[in-house]
Amino acid sequence: MALKHLLVKKIIVMFQKVLIAEDMDFINSGIKTELTKLNIQQIDYVQYCDEAFLKLKRARIDNVPYDLLISDLSFDEDGTMQELKTGDQLVEKVRNEFPSLKIVVFSVEDKTFRVQTLFNDFKINAFVWKSRDGLKELKKAIQLIYNSNKLYVSPHVANALFKSEAIEISDYDIFLLECLSNGNSQEQISKNLDSKKWSPSSISSIEKRLKFLREHFNANNPAHLVAITKDLGLI
After folding, report:
1. Digit-coded pLDDT (tens) for 110-128
2. β-strand 68-71 against 17-21: which pairing, if any?
3. pLDDT tens digit sequence for 59-88
């Protein structure tokens, strides 16, 4: 009986101190309800990114750090002055300051490039899409990242995110696409690259890279390429 009791206690061990950054009260309430079911002892929430960052720092100074941050990406502006205005900015700053903190993003965002950036650049541990089953997925994600070093991503975006033919989109590629979306010719793009001291800047190199991007995104022409990459959130 004693052994059985110990095993049960081991199963329900979970993060003990969690911070939620979300500006919608009803969503905060829903998240808190689900987290309570996971035996999490302290659940705090804030509605501003600056406040979230300061709260994490204060907790570390007081030697009672948070185990987990759950953050949205979009925060409505209400006139309150904020240095960190988006969840992306918050996550980036938190990851630099707290490299070992577990981070879950809970958002309606589903643009592949943006989600890729969160995993590749900001090293989040889970991305949960806000949907009808979002809170159930959130519980699953939290349990997974607590018990392992695995990453979690909602099925809605997983196929696009981890498809085998995915390529790394660089700042150079994004600049080319932005120039293309502004109606710049390849000659103009070349001059723009020269002014930024970026290379390669030759017209032939630009033409070759744009051709590669068109083929990768199955675009019929430059205008179609711009439309597709806008839909994906690249530009």
Report:
1. 887 788 889 988 999 999 9
2. parallel
3. 999 999 999 999 999 998 887 888 999 999
Report all structural domains of the chain as residue ranges with CATH numbers, in order of start.
17-163 (3.40.50.2300), 171-232 (1.10.10.10)
> Is there a contact between 71 and 91 (Cβ–Cβ < 8 Å)?
yes
* CA atoms of 73 and 86, how far apart (whole Å): 6
Burial class (CB in 10 A: 0-12, 13-18, 19+), 174: middle
CA separation, residue 117 to residues 15, 24, 94 (Å)? 25, 24, 15
Tokens 């696409």, residue located: 177
| DSSP-derived 3-state class of residue 155 | helix
What beta strand segments (E) does the chain contain?
17-21, 42-46, 68-71, 102-107, 126-129, 152-153
In one letter, which amino acid is 172? Answer: Y
| pTM tops 0.70, yes or no | no
